[in-house]
Design goal:
Shape: globular
Low-confidence stretches: 2-8, 19-25, 143-157, 234-255
Largest sheet: 10 strands, mixed
Oligomer: single chain
Number of helices: 4
Length: 255
């Protein structure tokens, strides 16, 4: 009887405590998600990541992120390399509480990207890519060390895994700046960039791994578009030169 009474007293204390913890978790879920984004993003990119607001609606499997900025690496003039004001996230409700959690879709609308070349010709995107590669190597080393020591279970070994089915980067605007000619800035409209099945090949990936995979692919696409824009601009100048020369030749016929 005493044992049964003690268990009842223990449960009477434990239930409201668990309820309080759950209430604190879900009432502060928005700020928790914002901190995770900032911490993981800053760790992977090795530059400051900030989020203005996160709005999570688990009941309907939706989340909204606004004011996500990624600071430019040191040595570049623009404040941000990425500025994403509106991000819409669709969550597979059935996957919540499991691992991996499945994100059906992430849509980034009207993002602004700044590609800047310093006076040596090195771009901020290449600096960011190098940062990601270092983070990726560091993460791989940690994974190897975890596999060597299977005896100790830590929070890190039990991280929740993620899969992102679809990712869209829509109506993006790319600004091109060269520090040798700081007064000249070119703006280019980016086509829609789509990525699929992020983290799926491994049956799910950690937040850091997802961030590395997404940013690596996104940077590759943006760099490609920047190269196209530069080629088109150079081609346009060459065409103009040829047109001007042809005009001068025609003009000479009548002099």
């Amino acid at each position: 009887m005493k044992l049964g009474k003690s268990m009842l007293i223990g449960l009477a204390i434990l239930v409201p405590v668990i309820g309080l913890v759950l209430w604190l978790l879900f009432s502060n879920l928005d700020s928790i998600v914002a901190r995770v984004i900032e911490n993981v993003g800053s760790e992977v990119l090795q530059t400051e990541v900030n989020v203005r607001n996160v709005d999570v609606d688990l009941a309907n499997g939706k989340a909204g992120i606004s004011g996500l900025t990624i600071a430019n690496p040191d040595g570049y003039s623009e404040p941000y390399i990425f500025a994403m004001d509106k991000i819409v996230v669709g969550i597979d409700i059935k996957s919540l509480g499991n691992s991996p959690i499945v994100i059906n879709e992430i849509i980034v609308r009207d993002p602004k990207v700044s590609l800047e070349l310093d006076k040596t010709g090195r771009s901020n995107l290449s600096v960011l890519k190098d940062n990601i590669n270092r983070s990726s190597k560091s993460g791989a080393d940690k994974e190897t060390n975890r596999k060597k020591d299977q005896q100790t279970e830590t929070k890190e070994t039990k991280q929740t895994l993620l899969i992102i089915k679809k990712f869209s980067f829509e109506r993006g605007q790319l600004s091109l700046l060269n520090q040798i000619k700081p007064d000249k800035k070119t703006k280019v409209e980016l086509p829609v960039i789509r990525l699929q099945s992020i983290g799926q090949a491994k049956g799910g990936a950690t937040g850091s791994e997802i961030a590395v995979e997404m940013m690596t692919k996104l940077l590759a696409q943006i760099t490609l578009e920047a190269a196209k824009a530069h080629a088109n601009e150079a081609l346009g100048k060459e065409k103009q030169k040829l047109t001007d020369k042809a005009g001068e030749a025609i003009k000479g016929l009548f002099e």
